[in-house]
Structure formats: structure tokens, C-alpha cells
Amino acid sequence: MSKPDYVQIVEEMFTKTKDKPTKEFTYLGKHVVRWDAISKITGKPLFTADMINLFKNAVFVHSVRSKYAHAKIKKIDYSEALKYPGVLKVITARDIPGINDVGYVLPDQPLLADRKVRFIGDTVALIVAESLENARDAGELVNVDYEPLPVYTDVLQVMDLNGLTEKEHVLIHDERGSDVLSRYKIRVGDVEKAFKEASVVVENKYRTPMQEHAYLEPEAAIAIPEPDGSVTIYAKTQCPFDTRKAVSNVLGLPFNMVRVVAPALGGGFGGAEDVGNEIAAKAALAALALKRTAVVLHTREESIIGHTKRHPMVAKYRHAASKDGTLLAVDADIVLDTGAYASLGPFVGWRAVVHSTGPYKVRNARVDLAVVYTNRVPAGAFRGFGNPQVTFAVERQMDLLAEELGMDPVEFRLKNILRNGDRTVHGQLLDHGVGLEDAIKRALEISGWSEKRKLYSTLKGPARRGIGIALMYHGNSIGAEGADFSTVSLIIQRDGSIIFRTGLTDMGQGSLQGLVNIAAEILGVPPSYFKIEPPDTAATPDAGPTVASRSTAMGGNATLVAAYKIRQRLNKLAAEMLGCVSPEDVVIEAPKVYCKDQPDHHITWKELIEQTFWKGIPIQEFGYYRAPPAEWHEETGTGQPYFTYTFGAVVSDVEVDIETGLTKVVEATVVYDIGRVVNRTGAEHHGVGGYIQGMGYALMEDTVHSENGHVYSTSFSTYHIPTGLDIPERINVDFVEAGFIRGPFGAKGLGEPSIVAIAPSIVNAIAHAIGSKQANRLLNRIPATPDFVRGVLKRAGLAR
Amino acid sequence: MSFKVNLKVNGKEHVLEVPAHERLVDTLRYRLGLTSVKEGCGRGECGTCIVLVNGLPRHSCLTLTATLDGAEVLTLEGLAPEGKLHAIQLAYLETRGVQCGFCTPGFMMMTKALLDTHPEPHQEQVKEWLSSVLCRCGSYHYYFAAAKLAAKYIKEGKIYFDEKQVREKYHMKVIGR
Predict the structure, then answer these.
(1) Does A42 contact B at CB distance below 8 Å?
(2) Which of B115, B99, B147, B140 is nearest to A724 (CA)?
(3) Which residues of chain B does A715 touch, with a Cβ-Cβ cutoff of 8 Å?
(4) Nearest in space to A642 (alpha carbons), one of A652, A633, A634, A632
(5) Residue from the list B43, B100, B167 with its beta carbon closest to the beta carbon of A266
(6) A387 — phi, psi (to 5°)?
(7) Which residues is B58 bridged to in the sheet?
(8) Which residues contact A40 (CB under 8 A, 6 or more apart)?
(9) Is this prediction's ipTM beyond 0.95?
(10) Taking CB atoms and an 8 Å limit, are B134 and A716 in contact across chains?
(11) In A447-509, which ranges are E strands?
(12) Is A459 helix (H, G, I), strand (E, B) or coil?
């Protein structure tokens, strides 16, 4: 079968430019000032809640949430609430015209709880009132008769880590007959034999916390009823097309009767997926019921209780190695806590199992992973998507193995990492573009690893220093999870200016600037000719979700294809106008257009564009790209789960106060192989920002639930994220550009990879600082708070 | 019960009738349309709502408008005259730290408060003052650099810049190395 044209175009552009250094491009890989920077420094961009001013006579929707984390609903009485001043309507499950479900991957999550509640954030009723205050007050008057059920807030209450068997308990999802959401495995080689032959075996248990996205903008949605019975929704959502699907489902309307626009977003990190659907559906229900614009506005508390988190992990890992430091086998049982609803849990579990042996040559592996329901706030998508959890365990294990072998942790890793020509644990051949070794070498050089590793080992006293390393790889885009495509639209206007639009959202990361850089490079026009329009389901083709580090890789390819096709047509026309020997000879350096051997004889970009209108040459394109198909064999965990991987090495240099257990990161170095740098500013932001968020995960962040399922950490004084005083003095960021034939100019994604290896690099550094074999084993969970580190020191006999 | 409040906001006098419980953040955002003032937590923890009240930084989410009779309030919208950009804004642009932009107004107002009281702040002062605002994208290092660059501009007497010229020079242009 011949390759689709879009694949040929991407490969052709890669092949043509693969030897061209990034610095020789005009816009690609440069610090281009992002399209919205000037509006942002004036405070002008409208985030959803800022738009409330634009609508007169709006109604406000408040979600009445559960009092119990697990209970049957016997009766809901809202008669008193209805009498409260300003209250217009109370909406419960029975008022939903379509299907009462907002489950992301499977239909397990009612928008409005009807039969039972499964966590403290479940919504039992919506109060629609003239003001938010009145709606909230009236919410107190909704009387729900509950029959409380036992609450499970630790995944080990539901699941036995030994053998991954479900324990006897009162089912949270009785309708499913089991609280095990999904199971995945890897069966490769002969694990038993490898362990028998091993000279070193290391076994440990690991726990990781429930991290909260803590984007600074709380969720908001505004729904406007349209005269034709359709609804327009402005909402904080990172996936407008998924939001449209969810709202259509709830309202019982076809997709074209629901229009979703994503205004400026104050951060997403994966958290603005499910909740965007929920708030949009709630606002839309009220808008269509009242025939008035309806607003949903979350407080920080509602945001923390009401949106999904990072899955906590409990795992048991066993690694085997030979005397010379060759990794022989991995044996692991992993449980992910998905909370009350599946959300993206099945996909998170799959990504976790794919990455569960790290970026190493592993020939023998047995991994079992289960994703399990509890009564916690649901866990879903969060930057890294299952990979930071398993990478924490794997990279801690690697340090323990190195210690057992008496090897330097870098030397041991270098012996086992994936290189060009190697196969992953799944049997996938990595025939090119593996820049991990280069990334490690650069990270060592920049961080001054060798000297520091030696020097710090000799330090004594209460303030110890340590330096640690961790490696990572991360499959790009959604792989075998589903249909993996993206689209953009590129329309050149008659005056030569250009409108760029895609359904991929910018949540702050600036990835759309990277796409414009690609289009500008190909067309030969400056980025300032472009205007970026916001994602709007009525104005752009379905671009797929903005997730999985796919904007640059997938959206970048769609952009490249669109720009390439337009450029071909323009070259042909310009060659005719200028009399160039071949269309290939046309040089566009807007505003100038000329033949390459006659730079003095030129026409203008505007003249060229004007001619396309006279000659009937279309200068608009919907760029489309579909990823190469992924392949996954459920029974063995083999195949080609992702079409490519981003690689990285992270070095953390820390100071640990032996008396208080407080860790401070002094300096950090991150080096990622992202194939090709497309948007340098954005790539650096990911390097730095991913580190800081990963540092929060490593040292301070956890969504703490009480035994009865209430959330303690519902504010920034109880849920701590890194402040300006917590950050390292310096975060060094560098890139390796090993290329990838199916990436735009060879580029890969960086959004998620940038958080994956941070926590283990920090905890490995803490272990180095403490310098005790016993403590090294005890440092098996994050966040490594002062309390926890102090406990480790005590148990290791190093502190009183 | 409502109160009559004389409030000067960004140099403009307003006479407002506000209920006793109305927060300054709501007055600014919803009565006056000054939506650079954000609400990220409503509890004085995130700093995105910080504005200057009589020259000092205040969490507008913790301030009741009724208590501000006769006060002067400055928000990002009033940092520079119409058509101009303040040195702080230019510095934030040039140090290229802006990501989602939700916390940026709070950072810039805190920078204004810092530089009004400490025209030549040292690194520790910059960190201490700007740590009043949270940024989840992780732009802290960039914003610290911006505060220092702004201090330099102001010291050199460069306080306002023509917005149109800045746009021509910077909008989607390649800067730095």
C-alpha cells in the first residue's frame, strides 16, 4: 500500500533538512515572542470567568455536592431550596434530557448522582439562581437522605498487592461487579531463570502521592442558548471536541448543535480534560432549561474537590542484574488508585505498564498492573500520565542496584540504556533517533556530576549535599489508546496576512507558537503575518484532544502538511510570474519573492497572493495528519505501543538538613532529546516548569483524604505547591536533537516528558546526601517531606 | 446594607454603592470591568488578585470595598497611560517568562510595589516579594529577572514605552540568541 501524501510530505521534509543545524533555520527553534505575550503583559486576554461581564442577565449554577464519600441516595428533597430568594430551578438527574453520564473512557460517571455517591465531590443537584451567593446558600437547603456505606481511601483496602487480587469489600461500582477497572501485563523472556542466574537482586516497595494540578485559574463555563435550540459554550477545557461530545451526550443533541470555544486558559496540565466536560454540561443544562445565559464558576475548594488528580501508585519491584552490571530482569506488581471514577484511568494504567521498565534494555520481564476504584477524588490525566509513578520506582531501583553492584549510578545506567538499533522491552525496534546517551553525557557535563558526586560523599555535619540522576523515556501522542490524528486550518487572506486555527488548545504552554514557526519556515513569511484564532468546534475540523505531548508532534505535522501544499502551489505560480527555471527555484522571503539566481528581480508576497485570486489557486488548507498505527498485544505486553519516544536525563543537586529532614534543591540540570527544537522559548519553559512541578511532586504535594473520604488539602495553605522561595537557584536546560522521520522537521513532544524523571532524581540525590545503605532503601515514597525524611533518618539510626 | 464609597481607580474617580460584604476583587472585576485582576483562590494565598491600595500591595479578595472610602487603587490596567507600556511590562516581555498569563498581572503589581519601595532590589528581596504570587507554569526565574530588568530601566529614567513601537519590535519576532 502506498503511503498517504501527508506521510510522504512529513518524511520528505525531514529527509531534506535532517542535516541542517537548527541555528540555520529562520524561525524554527528560535526564541519567537509568543503571539499573546503583549496582550498578556497588559492583562487583556479573557479567561472564561472574565467574560461574565459580556453577558447581561446571566444565571448562576451551583453544584450541591455529596456529604458522604460512599452512600446510597434514598431521596433528594429540594423543596426548601426552591423557595430560597433568587432560586429559579433545581436540576437533578431526572431532568437530564440525554444520557446522564460524563465518563471519559467508559460510562461509569453520572453527571448528577442518582442511585449512589462514590466520592465527596459527586454532584447530587444543581441550583440555578439569579446570583452565585443565592445559589450557594440555597444549596444548603437541599435535603438528601443517604444510606452511608463503608469508605475506602487506601487502594490496599480494595486490592491485595500480593497477587493483585481484589479483597472482599462493599463494591463502589456494584453495577460493574468489580472495583478493578482494568489490568495490564508484560510477559517477556524467562523471568524465573533470569532471577536464578542473577548475582544481584534488589526488591522494594514504592508509593507515590495523589498530585493536584493546581492550575492558577479555577474552572469556569458560560453557556449561551441560541435561537435555533443549539448552545454555545465558553469553557475552561483543554479538549473542546471532547467537551462537545460530552455535552451532546448529556443534552441529547447532535454535535453540530453544541459549539464549544476555549478562551484563554490559565493552565491545564491534563486536569482541564474531564472537568471541562462536566462544567460545560452543567452550564448547558441550565442554559437550555432557563433559556438564559448560564455560568458555572468554581472556587479553589470546588476545583480541588471537583477535578481529577494524578493516580497514586503502590508498587512492588524486583530487579535482577549480573555481576558485570547487566540488567537481567524486572518483576513488578503495580496498583494505581483511580478514585471514584475511571476518568482516563484505563489509559493511564496502560501508559504506566508500557513505561514500567524504564528506558533500558530489558529482555525478561513480568509486570502486572491493576487500576482500582476507591472513594477518593477521581484520578485522571496529569502531565506524565502514569509514567512519573513507575519511573520513580524504576529509577530508585536503578540506584539501589548500582549500590549493590558497587558501581557508579551513571556507569550502571550507561551499560543498560536504549540506543539506536536496540529493542524496547515490548520488542519495538528503535532504528534511529535515540538521543539518550548524548542527553546523559550533556547532563553530566553541565551539572559537574563527577566532581560533585565525589565531593559530596565526603561531607559530614548537619547540612549535607547530594547529587542524583534519573533517566526517562516517554511515548509520544496517544499511541494504541485510540484514533491518533490532528488537524489545523491555514487560510491566507487577500492582503497576504494569514489566519491560523486549530482545535488544539493553548493552556499556557505556547505550543501554537511552535506550529506557527513551522508554517512560517515553510511558507517563507514571518510569524508576525499570522493571527492565531482560539479553538472553536464550529470553525475548525476536529483536531483530536490536546493531550499526550501531541501538539508539536501531531499538530506540527498537520501544520507542515498544510503549509507545504500551499507553498507548492505558490511556487508554481511565482515561477510563472517571475520566469524561474523551476518552481523549486522560487525563494520566498516575505515581503520579497524571487528566483534563487535573480534576487534583484522580485515581486512582493502581496502581489503573489493577489494573483492566486485571479488565477483560481486556492490558498487555504486543512492540514491533516494521522500517526502511524500503534500495535499492542494484550497477553504479552509487546508490540509498538508508541510511534516514537522522547528521552531525557535529569540531575538534581540538593541540600538535606539532617536535623530537620528538609530538602532544598540547589541546582538542577535537565537535558531532553526532543528530535528537533521547534519553539525554543516553549521548550525551555517546559524544561524549567516541568522541573518545578516535578519538584513539588517529589517534596511537598499530596491530596490528603481523611478516613471518611473528605479532602483536607483544599487550599494553597494546605496543598503546598513550590513558591518562588522553594525553587532551585538555577535550572539548566539543554536539548539533544536526534531527529525522528515522522516528526515535523524531526520534532517530538516535551510537555509531559518534562516532569517524568524529576522526583526520582531528587530522591536519589537525597539518598546520596544521607549516604546510608539502610536509608537508601527506606526512601521509597514521595513526597519526601521533612517529616518523612526525618523518619527515614531515625529508622536508619542517623538521628534521634 | 450598602455603603457609599469614593474610590479612585487607576486615576479615575468613582462613587460606588456597595453592599457591606462586597470584595474589592468583585468591584474591580465585575463593576469596573478590570479583569486583569484575577481570582485564583479567594483566600489570599495565590496572589493573582494583588492590586495596590494607596500604594501598597493588597489581596483584593481579602479586602472589602466598603472599607476603602477615599482610597486610591492601582491595577495593571492603570500601570501605564493609554497607548504606553510601563518598564515593568516591557521587562516581563523581554525576559520571555509569560506562559498562561493568569498569574502575570499579580506578579507585575507586586513588582511595582517592590520597585516603588526598593528601587534597586537585591536578589533575595526580589525573591521574597515575588514569592507572594504563585505560578504553576513555573516562570519564577524569568519573573525575578524581569523585576531586575525593570529596575534597570526605571533607574535609567525609561519608565514608559510606546505600545505601538513595542508591538512592531516584538510581536512574534525572533529575540535573543
Answers:
(1) yes
(2) B140
(3) 41, 43, 45
(4) A632
(5) B100
(6) -75, -40
(7) B51
(8) B98, B101, B104
(9) yes
(10) yes
(11) 463-475, 485-492, 498-501
(12) coil
Q: Is A647 helix (H, G, I), strand (E, B) or coil?
A: strand
Tell which A residues from 64 to 83 touch B, by Cβ distance under 8 Å: none
Q: pLDDT tens-digit profile of A208-236? A: 999 999 999 999 999 999 999 999 999 99
Please say whether the beta carbons of A671 and A736 come within 8 A: yes
Q: What is the pLDDT of residues A510-526, one digit of tens each?
A: 999 999 999 999 999 99
Helices B140-155 and B87-94 cross at an angle (nearest 10°) of 140
pLDDT tens per residue, range A47-100? 999 999 999 999 999 999 999 999 999 999 999 999 999 999 999 999 999 999
A692 part of contact set with chain B, CB < 8 Å:
yes
pLDDT digits (tens, 9 = 90+) for A741-763: 999 999 999 999 999 999 999 99
Among candidates A53, A216, A507 on the partner chain, residue whose Cβ is nearest the Cβ of B40? A216
pLDDT digits (tens, 9 = 90+) for B73-121: 999 999 999 999 999 999 999 999 999 999 999 999 999 999 999 999 9
**pTM across the whole model:** 0.98
Contacts of A681 in chain B (CB under 8 A): 96
Task: Report whether A368 contacts A400 (CB < 8 A).
Answer: no
Mutate to test the interface with A, among B49, B99, B131 (most CBs of A within 10 A): B99
Go through chain A and tell me how many residues it has.
Answer: 800
Q: Do the Cβ atoms of B43 and A717 come within 8 Å? A: yes
Cell of A491: 487560510
- From B70's Cα to the closest Cα of chain A, the distance in A is 26
User: Cα–chain-centroid distance for residue A714?
Assistant: 22
Residue A698, CB-side half-sphere exposure with 13 Å CA sphere: 32
